[in-house]
């Protein structure tokens, strides 16, 4: 035991020596300028170059109130990408005085030199900028970026045109053959791909709500030089043709509405504009070569609910407009005073409404544009069956509206008589029977039978209709709520969903409830309880979107952004729908805590922890906060007030009680945020008498105590109440510098409108930067505005990036309060075991593209043992999102990895490749299970995607143990658990194997390894033998002490020894020899165990040395 204790102490001492490391420190030069005049957190350029020059020096002056991370970056914006980082230098600074850091810019050759043999890939930047940013340093694994920073400095650098750049100095000599091939190919005129002057601007129907959210199309110059030469020549003598199909639900409510219009780079209207008047006429406006605008009105009076084709032919100053619908046609000729000026690459075109003009309320069919004109347009109505079905559905809806309107009018004009029973109406008696009152029937018996379900519903709710409780506006919602609980039925025999009658849903859709439209589209597109019918699904998707329903708009935008369910992938169309919902969301957020809105609860039904946490919050969270609040805890009082005000954590909304707790927490004058909340309550007068004076004083106090939101609120008060722009901007700037997104957005409005008191001119670039900064912090209106600039690309220095705009708007739409309310309803239905209502509402939310709802809808399909198509449909949708939940990715990865055995080997490899992709995405999203699965796949010999290798800072050419070790290390960091986990065990095994391999590289250490194995074997054998020997000796001693025969024999021997001169007998000698032998054996065993223990200790100490 003493030997083992000594060895153990030696091991611990050796490990402690191995783990000792010295820490390096970085010393920076403090600024000589006194720090009293500047804030605690500050960053600026002390000096920066004006032009793009390699090796130029940037000096950054900064100060941090606590340890922070800083960076200097050079970003490039091209026609295809904005703010592409080409240089980055990061460092960590200590708190204290002001520091000045010197950074040398090392720029890539792609933005410095011409294209040549050694510099083949060059960039033609529209803008190059150097920026510095500052963010607080913490121990989180999330990397710091410019977007996450709260302070930054920015400077635009002048660039050198491509033709004026120098040639890159050669660093090596190319081979003769390579140089010859380069000389032969450098001036080769490449054969351009075939380009057509015919552009299909729209091939899939577009639903237009009559607002400012149309489809943006941008045209680029021809690649073919001859075509581009012809286009430029035709700018002042144009010849082009535009053909568009429209379907009007209403005439324009404004003086004019846009059918198609053109916005140039100066954000002015340009040739050509096709407009609709409030009388149904068409206006064609163009800009002539003198720069003036000219227009004419075609008095055609377009009909409602008819597919109309408008063909506009323009040649020089002549215009021909053909208008056709059904069998009717009109042709209008006009000649402008001067030739039309037309450059289709200048700015962008808008189909429908845009920023400066509302659109029509209806639908767009195919839109075809001939850039060089044509004698006759070939633009048939496509897809014909879908658009004709859309027209038929609207005609049927007109009948439903007329039928319902007549019923309501008859009921409200009729007073019940004593002879009539409640719930019946005089006009539904058998035909021909005399009644006490004569009724004028406005429908036939055929119509009554056709809409029998609607008729029965109206008859049942006659009393509510008569009292005015149920009018035309509320009937659609009542029909939807009545049918949503009975639309599906589960067949217990084969676990399938059967579809009941959808007539009430169709009638609800006709009466303006477009959740019913979305549910009908979902039924037809998913085939749930019915066969898949994409045409019907498209029809009801368009009807819902034209009805301006948030969920239907998100549904259409999501389908077009992904290109699924028969919707073509078209990001411009997706942006059109998402921009509408984003604008509505920016309004909804100001009423987020009103009825029918709530914050989305991210509860995943397949995660027991989420459900348990929800139950705990409902039962204990509120009571615990109330107990602490009553004890005087300021933070608890504020938390309780927020719960009651917002209706969170299962607590019903109670504004009066919330206001009381807001007041109690604020009046303690300890928490600035509590003061701010109560000041807003006083300003609005919610649950308390409005008192702006007291609210303003409390707001000032909150700002003095450090509330950033109060600074922004003070700016708003000076801006909107006191009309003091100077003080408003002062407070907005203070709030923005400290990371307040509202302050950033409000400053952006000042720059956009040109009302900044110190800079009284319109500065859209500065406005965009502030909107973009606000969007990084999740500001909804800021995201909508920034996305608008990305969608057009009309602002200098901002490249058109529709995909980024769609991503920004989708994140905004996924936070919509109405969507959160429906998710809450679905969750409550699930907790109350109302599976059908939960499934329907989760499906409706899933169709909008919300990953949470898609995951829960798939879980319900699996839990209810429905067909696999239902489950995998929504799992597949979920992984198409920009940020899918890791659990869904793991589910799909398992689905692909454990593929059926009946498939071929080629299909098997393809499915495994998909599994690798799913696990990789889950790992990048931070899932430890995904990382562990990747380790298994890598060991099996599978190759990971390049992005995954980059994420783990490894290469596909690294050794296997290096890749595995780095993935497992990241996995252990992601687990955040002190307990032993699979990743930690696997990492220990890898590291021990690595240490053993390093140990066995030298002969002495190899002998030590074999000796340790032998020592382990010796200990394994000797220890049991010693134990058996001890037991044998101890048992023998016991027998000798207890046996009378043995004691007598000893006495006799002793007597004989005394008589015979103490001579030993043969038996005594043998016993003595055996005793000595056992003692020697024990001593030898102890010696061997000791030596083996020392050997093992040396081995493990050496192993720990290599391991650590």
From TrEMBL:
Residues 1-24 form the signal peptide. The keyword Membrane applies. SMART domains: SEL1. Gene3D superfamilies: Tetratricopeptide repeat domain. Keywords: Membrane, Signal, Transmembrane, Transmembrane helix. InterPro entries: Sel-1L3, Sel1-like, TPR-like_helical_dom_sf. The chain crosses the membrane at residues 1007-1025, 1087-1107. PANTHER family: PROTEIN SEL-1 HOMOLOG 3. This is Protein sel-1 homolog 3. It comes from Xyrichtys novacula.
